[in-house]
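Objective 1b. Sequence-to-structure analysis of Polysaccharide deacetylase family sporulation protein PdaB.
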Amino acid sequence: MKRNVLRLCLCSLCIVLLSGFAAPVRKDRMYYERRGEIVWEVPMDHKMIAFTFDDGPNPKTTNLILDLLKEYDAKATFFVVGKRVDRYPEVVEREVKEGHEVANHTYNHVYFSQNVSSALMEKEIMDAQKQISKITGETSAWLRPPGGYYNDRLIHVAQNHGFKVVLWSWHQDTKDWRKPGVSFIVNKVLKNARNGDIVLMHDHVSNSMQTVEALKLILPELKKRGFQFVTISELINEKRKEVFGHPKK
């Protein structure tokens, strides 16, 4: 009897000790998606797709992109850099006037790696937000950290200021900033297009018109396939309607 009690005590002690060395929670994409803290894409029944453009505005390429979006009755989300908004406010004004969404991509395009403090994250985000609000008169709901860098500190800072972090569909990263060639960009989007995709493009790439030329081929083809081009907000609200029967107010 005493032996059995001793064995039971030893087993209990082992369980307690082992629990102290349990593996830490793996904070991968699934972890943040399940918690609703980061959006990569919004799978849905409707044929909707969200084009997003980072790093602008650029007075030349952004305006050419806006011309194409207008031609194909397309709406998009522009993740703007605050210092460029300050430099080219008229381009952002046009984005808003034509029904597009303007979102936050920090003020100086700072990469939020592990050694970046929460204070700097907050300053970068809020300085950009001030510039956006000055032009649009609104507060952006979406934040895209440059390079897609994120961690718990960024999530905390974003949530404290009412932002949701939005990245992009992994299969819709066009790599257009690398200037991979028009055909590469076109094939990347068209071969992988799915309902609820978030496409990553850039409207400010030095000495490159590849994104503009690619859009001339991508937009008409996707429209032919029946896709509707929407903003991030429209994409997420449509998903809410599918799930709950009504959009969020």
